[in-house]
Amino acid sequence: MNSFSVTRKKTPFQKHREEEEAKKKRAEDETAHLYQEFVESFQGDGTVGAKTFVRGGTINPNEKLKNDSEGGNSKDGVSGSKKGSR
């Protein structure tokens, strides 16, 4: 007696809800992937004694800074004209 089947149209609410669920699923998948990359970034590659060079120095907040020998910009108390100053 089933000579034809009736297909129901989805209401706008149902379409919207399915779209929201799909967005949520994509966001969860992306978050899981990014978290996995984050965790892997902390996993060592097994190299014993692997070190990264970090350049450091000391900073005295009471001392005026001068131009570095490598051309870095530092405060020396004298500044050029600033935009908006009179």
Q: What amount of the residues lies in strands?
A: under 5%
User: What general form does the structure show?
Assistant: elongated
Q: Note the total helix count.
A: 1
Gap between N and C termini, in Å? 92 Å
Poorly predicted residue ranges: none
Order of helices and strands: H
Query: What is Rg?
Result: 31 Å
Oligomer: single chain
Q: Percent helix among the residues? A: 25-40%
Tell me how many strands there are.
0
Mean pLDDT: 76
Q: Assign the structural class, choosing from mainly alpha, mainly beta, alpha/beta, alpha+beta, or little secondary structure.
A: mainly alpha
The major pleated sheet works out as:
none
Brief characterization of the structure:
The protein is mainly alpha-helical and 86 residues long. It has one helix at 12-42.
Structure characteristics:
single chain; 86 residues; mainly alpha; 1 helix
Describe this structure in words.
This protein is mainly alpha-helical and 86 residues long. The protein has one helix and no strands. The protein starts with 11 loop residues before the first helix and ends in a 44-residue tail after the last helix. The mean pLDDT is 76.
